[in-house]
Amino acid sequence: MSNLNVGTGLRYCHKGELAIDEITLAHLKDLDRRGSAGSFLTPAQAIKAKQYFVGQLILLGGFKEAERVIPVFGDAAHPERYLAAIKLIYRTQDCLSHRDILGAALGLGLARTVLGDIVVGEGEAHLVCLRHVAEFICENLSMAGRIGLKACMISLDELPEPNRQIEKISCTVASLRLDVILSQAFRLSRGKAEEILRLGLVQLAHEECRNGAKPVRQGDILSVRGYGRAQLLEIGGESKKGRTWITIGIFI
After folding, report:
1. CA of 162: how far to CAs of 1, 2, 149, in Å?
2. Tell me, what's the pLDDT at 100?
3. Which stretches in the chain have pLDDT values below 50?
4. The domain at 166-251 falls in which architecture?
5. Which of the following CATH numbers is that of domain 81-158: 1.10.10.10, 2.40.180.10, 3.30.70.330, 1.10.1060.10?
6. pTM
7. What's the rounded Cα separation, in Å, for the pair 70 and 74?
8. CA angle 17, 38, 110 (to 5 degrees)
């Protein structure tokens, strides 16, 4: 298998298990040649891009451990050249979700690729976006549904650390198969777990997975459309009956 040198001298190679879609790959190669930054990648694309390109690829998302990031080829010492942070303020008695904020932003005609992570709190939310759309968002994002918003730009340094609340559950399982972990995490029957897998509603480590026999590794995140998200936090020892102790975190 050969490595190719392009643009800024980064090496990239193709491995079957790291296959990245051709459109994303072409976009990244073009950025590499120009030594610039791109649009936000999905978590799955970001994982593959980081493994696919060997060298100076840097991923920026504004938040620490951001899920949605932009690939930067070249100087990434000044992330505010590429990214902007927006603070959204609303009444504390109003309740908004990530979906509400995202829907309001997309309702302005913006593409998902110009929007990064969104963190929602009590009476305020924070949104990361590409810098060139920040002013437009601040001027036009005034409502989320029927709830009024006040938007203002802040420094990336002012972004709060995401406070992702999780509920931990500990249990034993016969195996670390995906269908088994799904059943435990979301309190599903084995048959129901198999059904949602078959329908393509499950993502394992940010990729759609329909194979219930696929093993789940420590740290893997499970996303199930209509049910929520969970993470396999810890794999422990064996019980007296030969089952494996695990700890699962359910995102609240």
Report:
1. 41, 40, 20
2. 94
3. 1-18
4. Roll (3.10)
5. 3.30.70.330
6. 0.71
7. 13
8. 110
